[in-house]
Write a structure and sequence with these properties.
Blueprint (H helix, E strand, L loop, with lengths): L1 H5 L10 H21 L16 H27 L8 H8 L5 H35 L1 H14 L15 H13 L9 E2 L4 E3 L2 E3 L4 E2 L3 H5 L39 H18 E4 L10 E3 L3 E3 L5 E4 L1
Antiparallel strand pairs: 1-4, 2-3, 5-8, 6-7
């Protein structure tokens, strides 16, 4: 995501001073922001209580650090911008602006922040749940590996071009998103006018939440919903009416395509190259940790090279 938005990446294996600076100014603040946003407080609904809650004071520091980093990146990109050869999303956003005023630059920086916030925490949470699901379902993991191995005879990297030929892996990824919903209430929406739905009157400007957790674990729609079973998505069963992890309609998640690609590339190549187990050979607890997204509680994994 960093490379897509600002043309940078962090090397976690051989960390340089520049990598450490990015972790301090970017990654750690992202984690802090999501942690603060995920903790509910009365001040979220009663403005006069906000000064009494340390949450709002603690929230300012990572937010300002995060914003300053992107303000600096916008200025650096202006200095190196080649209109005939844009290098990343930030370059493209700058080229879309007719005039680079202070307000337009703030808008560009804010859009870049939105992409980073939405694209890092969500994908990483889904991948954490994938690792947990594979530790606890070894037969399913092996079935996906065999599919990928039979496809990939030359031991090359799995690419998006392989996706149509890996139906079980595709189903596995969908089942991770269904069984372990990282955003159980989706994104909030509001009504633009008064409406009556199923004999219930909903006034204008009412906040609406889609209870994805209920939808994905309801026996009315899913057989044995608490069981991790990718087979439920096979045989052309797309379940477009009840499987909506990215929302639905014209206002669904703008990053759906990108997120789906990232999850496929990451999960398929991990499955092809490693066997995923726990260090002690036992199953891992799937109890959740709630922030703005839902994570599994911390657990250890062991990767065995295939």
């Amino acid at each position: 995501m960093l490379r897509f938005v600002i043309g940078k990446r962090i090397n976690y294996l051989n960390t340089t001073d520049q990598d450490k600076e990015m972790i301090d100014q970017l990654i750690k603040p992202i984690e802090d922001v999501f942690s603060h946003l995920g903790a509910g407080h009365l001040g979220d609904y009663l403005d006069f209580l906000k000064p009494l809650y340390s949450k709002y004071l603690n929230f300012n520091d990572p937010s300002l650090k995060f914003k300053q980093y992107f303000d600096d990146q916008v200025l650096k990109h202006i200095g190196s911008l080649d209109p005939s050869n844009p290098q990343d999303l930030l370059d493209h956003l700058l080229l879309e602006k007719d005039t680079l005023t202070n307000n337009s630059l703030k808008t560009v920086g804010a859009l870049a922040i939105d992409f980073i916030n939405a694209g890092t925490e969500t994908s990483s949470s889904s991948i954490e749940w994938f690792f947990l699901a594979m530790i606890n379902n070894q037969e399913i993991q092996n079935k996906a590996f065999q599919e990928l191995k039979n496809l990939n005879k030359n031991n090359s990297m799995i690419t998006l071009l392989d996706r149509p030929n890996t139906p079980y892996t595709n189903a596995l990824i969908k089942e991770v998103s269904r069984r372990y919903s990282i955003a159980p209430l989706g994104l909030p929406r509001s009504t633009t006018s008064d409406i009556t739905l199923c004999d219930t009157f909903i006034p204008k400007n009412t906040q609406i939440l889609l209870n994805l957790h209920y939808l994905f674990t309801n026996e009315k729609y899913w057989e044995n919903p608490m069981e991790f079973n990718p087979d439920r998505f096979l045989n052309n069963n797309n379940r477009s009416d009840t499987y909506v992890p990215f929302g639905m309609g014209p206002r669904n998640c703008i990053g759906q395509g990108y997120a789906s690609d990232i999850l496929y590339i990451t999960i398929a190549n991990v499955l092809l190259n490693f066997k995923i187990v726990s260090p002690n050979g036992e199953k891992v607890s799937d109890k959740e940790f709630f922030s703005l997204t839902v994570h599994p509680k911390s657990f250890l994994i062991k990767l065995l090279s295939r």
